[in-house]
């Protein structure tokens, strides 16, 4: 099989368009269909490595991160078929990938590092490139490494690669008790996957509680794993000998849903989202209610009804169930247009305020000190040419453009396409003037 050829042919390429052109000031109206969660889909794809059976994943978003992850699995000899939002992943055969290609793909996607858990669990050894730099901060991997060491793995670092090996002669990970120093989504997921095939029991203390972790545990349990407590800070995993294939549907993307709620609020528009799980969005909904938005919910359909005048409120980001860092930038765009002064404190990542300069270029009044932004609301933002520096910052600038006077050009579409399926098309359907150019 010519892997390089396969990788370039199978999945569509993104980012052939360069920017968004938005005419602001339009009211939005109608229903939005929420896609499957990016952060779930990516880790469920990594988890498929654990089984020799076939995994059918439904509701997978067609975004460039999923495309890169698919290519990465294909370089490992894994057979993947895609049909709209369904992926069929057959992991019976796995090979050592061509290193140059593997290196480039891993560098393009931090979550690729999360494959280390399932590769170690299945093969007893792994060689994975260190995750590349990221514009929102240093994003260390010490929690992944330290906790895998407790399961019996030794590590070496060579030429930007992590080389890991299970030390016991049976090459099987051994269950252990782990106390994470900080709540990390990725480290919790790495350990859930690794410990599922370990010998004996693993206890994860101070585990992250995000809905995507519950989603992963649910799929692993369907594959035959024995995991209890996912969604709380203590998770117990009884290791099993092997895992089988399964059919699984990815949960709705709470960050995409949150972005649309904020777009509705910033344009003072009433829209409905389906399917939507409000329990995944409690922190955002509470804050939007304090601003002056009302909500109606039934049968997985969430409707937002904002007042025409919204008030400023403060937020502090944190691990779930606290306010998600992934919605900090879009929330700041809203606060730039509300009545009063808002304090926005970022505690998860040390360098996630790049959007401030661009929002100020649109007429916002924001100053930042020690990762706390002080946002003085203005009556109207002004359409300008701005550039998104990461996925969520680009989304924030786009929703700012939807509410601004005149034309906004948002560059950085390649970031947006990493995580939002049909972003501009969905907004067009509810009345926005937004074009990909
Ligand atoms: C995941 C999400 C990302 C989200 C983030 C926080 C995926 C694919 N991505 O990223 O969208 O913004 O959670 O909700 O699910 N940390 C360490 N050592 C480690 C690992 C993490 O100190 O080994 C720190 C990080 O620097 C950060 C905090 O823990 O300050 C949270 O990071 P983490 O939850 O690990 O983020 P990711 O899993 O990378």
Automatic annotation (TrEMBL):
It catalyses: phosphoenolpyruvate + UDP-N-acetyl-alpha-D-glucosamine = UDP-N-acetyl-3-O-(1-carboxyvinyl)-alpha-D-glucosamine + phosphate. GO terms for molecular function: UDP-N-acetylglucosamine 1-carboxyvinyltransferase activity. It is an enzyme of class 2 (transferase). Gene3D superfamilies: Enolpyruvate transferase domain. The active site is at 134 (proton donor). Cell wall formation. Adds enolpyruvyl to UDP-N-acetylglucosamine. Belongs to the EPSP synthase family. MurA subfamily. This is UDP-N-acetylglucosamine 1-carboxyvinyltransferase. It comes from Prochlorococcus marinus (strain MIT 9215).
């Amino acid at each position: 099989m010519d892997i390089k050829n396969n990788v370039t042919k199978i999945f569509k390429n993104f980012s052939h368009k360069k920017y968004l052109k938005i005419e602001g000031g339009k009211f939005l109206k109608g229903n939005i269909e929420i896609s499957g969660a990016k952060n779930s889909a990516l880790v469920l794809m990594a988890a498929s490595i654990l089984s020799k059976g076939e995994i059918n994943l439904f509701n997978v978003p067609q975004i460039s991160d999923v495309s890169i992850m698919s290519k990465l699995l294909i370089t490992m000899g894994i057979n993947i078929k895609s049909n709209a939002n369904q992926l069929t992943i057959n992991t019976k055969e796995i090979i050592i990938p061509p290193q140059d290609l593997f290196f480039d793909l891993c560098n393009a996607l931090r979550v690729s590092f999360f494959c280390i858990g399932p590769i170690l669990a299945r093969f007893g050894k792994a060689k994975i490139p260190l995750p590349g730099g990221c514009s929102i901060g240093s994003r260390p991997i010490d929690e992944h490494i330290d906790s895998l060491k407790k399961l019996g793995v030794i590590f070496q670092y060579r030429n930007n690669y992590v080389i890991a090996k299970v030390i016991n002669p049976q090459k099987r990970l051994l269950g252990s008790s782990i106390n994470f120093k900080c709540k990390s989504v990725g480290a919790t997921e790495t350990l859930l996957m690794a410990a599922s095939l370990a010998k004996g029991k693993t206890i994860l203390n101070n585990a992250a509680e995000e809905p995507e972790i519950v989603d992963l545990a649910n799929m692993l349990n369907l594959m035959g794993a024995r995991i209890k407590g996912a969604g709380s800070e203590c998770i117990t995993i009884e290791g099993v000998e092997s895992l089988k294939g399964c059919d699984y549907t990815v949960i709705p993307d709470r960050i995409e849903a949150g972005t649309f709620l904020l777009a509705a609020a910033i344009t003072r528009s009433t829209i409905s989202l389906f399917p939507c799980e409000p329990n995944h969005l409690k922190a955002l909904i509470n804050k939007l209610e304090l601003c002056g938005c009302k909500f109606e919910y039934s049968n997985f359909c969430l409707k937002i009804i904002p007042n025409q005048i919204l008030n400023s409120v403060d937020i502090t980001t944190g691990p779930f169930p606290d306010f998600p860092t992934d919605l900090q930038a879009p929330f700041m765009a809203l606060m730039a247009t509300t009545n009063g002064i808002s304090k926005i404190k970022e505690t998860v990542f040390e360098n996630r305020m790049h959007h401030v300069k661009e929002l100020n270029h649109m007429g916002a009044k924001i100053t930042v000190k020690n990762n706390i932004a002080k946002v003085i609301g203005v009556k109207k933002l002004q359409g300008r040419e701005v550039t998104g520096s990461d996925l969520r910052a680009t989304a924030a600038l786009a929703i700012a453009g939807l509410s601004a006077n005149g034309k906004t050009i948002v560059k950085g579409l390649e970031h947006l396409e990493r995580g939002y399926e049909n972003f501009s098309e969905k907004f067009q359907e509810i009345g926005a003037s937004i074009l990909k150019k």
